[in-house]
Structures are given as C-alpha cells and as structure tokens.
Design goal:
Layout (H helix, E strand, L loop, with lengths): L8 H17 L1 H10 L5 E6 L6 H4 L7 E6 L15 H12 L4 E7 L3 H10 L4 H4 L4 H6 L3 H7 L4 H20 L3 H8 L4 E8 L4 E6 L4 E4 L2
Parallel strand pairs: 1-2, 1-3, 3-4
Antiparallel strand pairs: 4-5, 5-6
C-alpha cells in the first residue's frame, strides 16, 4: 500500500507524551486489559463528530465502554441480507459476545449529518439524493424522523430532528431479534441522550413522558 505515509509529527509527539505519562503510570492496568480481554459494561453509539468526546462526558476509563461511531449516531433497521453492515455488526458483537448491560445512543446539537438530512429531505441538497452519495443513503435511515417533525416551525425542526436521530436509532435497535430478547429478559437496557455541545448539558429520553429531560 504505497500511498500510506508516516504519521504527522504532532501525533507522534502526543504519542510520546502518552507513553511517558498515562501509559507508564498505569502499566499494570494496561497489562491486565491485554491479558484478561475486554469486559465493558456498556456500549455507546455516538456520532463521528470530533466535538463529541463520550469518554470525557461520562468520565470513562480505558476498557469501560465499547464504542461505535458513525454519521449522526444512527442505527439502521435489522437487515440480514448478507451485505456488509458495520453498525449492525458492532451491536451484534456487543450484545451476543460482550454481553453488555447497557446500550447508550448519544446524539448531539449542531450535528452536520442531521442538518444534511434535513436539507436533503426538504429538497435543498440534491447531491445527497444521488445514489452514489454514501452520506445521503446513510441519512435515509433518518427520513422517518424528518417526516415526524416536518410540520413544526422551521426554527424548531433541526433540534427536533437531532432528537429523532436518537429515537429512530433506539426504535431500529429493537428490530434486532437478539436485542429485543435481551431487553425483554432484563439483561439489556437501552438509553438515549442528547449532548448540548455549547452548554455541556445532557438530556435523556424518558419513555414515560415521551420526552427528553435535562439531567440536572
């Protein structure tokens, strides 16, 4: 693979710093992680957005979360069609092999993927409608969410669609037979939160109220 190049120097310097501090101070813990394997209590499905730092938000240590990131923190419906499904594979591994007790879908404000979906569904991003658009076809998962919020005032639609990205993902997760079974038997719980990047506030979905409630 002749196109691959050495890391940029700033990343190498950061690696040196990590190796000399964090790793050296916790060498026994890292050795234990290597020898005992991973035993995370929770899976986190978050957006690829560089501003969403889920381990910092929850103060998680190395080995605590099984993390999967994709555009707009979406989970597609269950589709055992023999094709390649990265998100579905991650969920299958987390539930069936790692036996996680919790799956947390973390949405966030100012999500570019959600904004792109809104633009596409409202007819303002024809390039995303192209069959060749990976982003567009991925954001098709959120189309049902757009239909739910399309009648809202324009200024409220994006924020509402960000919440729908979490809800659609939770709903789609329950179409996976092994997820459904684990939830029904009490071995797995699903959670949805929205992270406000500017304010540092988390809202969690309350199924009893059918609403997102700030965690204060």
């Amino acid at each position: 693979m002749k196109q691959a190049r050495p890391l940029p120097q700033y990343l190498i310097q950061r690696y040196y710093g990590w190796r000399a501090t964090t790793f050296l101070e916790n060498k026994v813990w890292y050795r234990r992680l290597a020898e005992d394997g991973q035993h995370p209590r929770a899976m986190v499905i978050a957006c690829c957005d560089s501003r969403v730092h889920v381990t910092s938000i929850f103060g998680a240590d190395t080995g605590e979360f099984f993390i999967h990131r994709n555009i707009a923190n979406l989970v597609p419906p269950y589709a055992p069609d023999g094709e390649q499904h990265g998100t579905s594979a991650a969920i299958e591994y987390a539930v069936n092999t790692l036996k996680v007790a919790h799956i947390v879908v973390v949405g966030h404000t100012n999500c570019g993927g959600v904004q792109g979906c809104h633009a596409m569904c409202s007819g303002h991003a024809p390039e995303l409608e192209e069959k060749s658009s990976f982003v567009g076809r991925w954001m098709d998962i959120l189309r049902p969410g757009y239909e739910r919020i399309a009648s809202l005032p324009a200024e409220k639609q994006i924020r509402a669609l960000e919440r729908q990205a979490v809800l659609i993902s939770l709903e789609n997760m329950m179409t996976f037979p092994f997820v459904n079974e684990a939830v029904e038997t009490g071995n797995l719980s699903l959670h949805g939160v929205l992270h406000d990047i500017a304010e540092g506030v988390l809202e969690q979905y309350d199924s009893q109220l059918s609403s997102f409630i700030p965690i204060l």
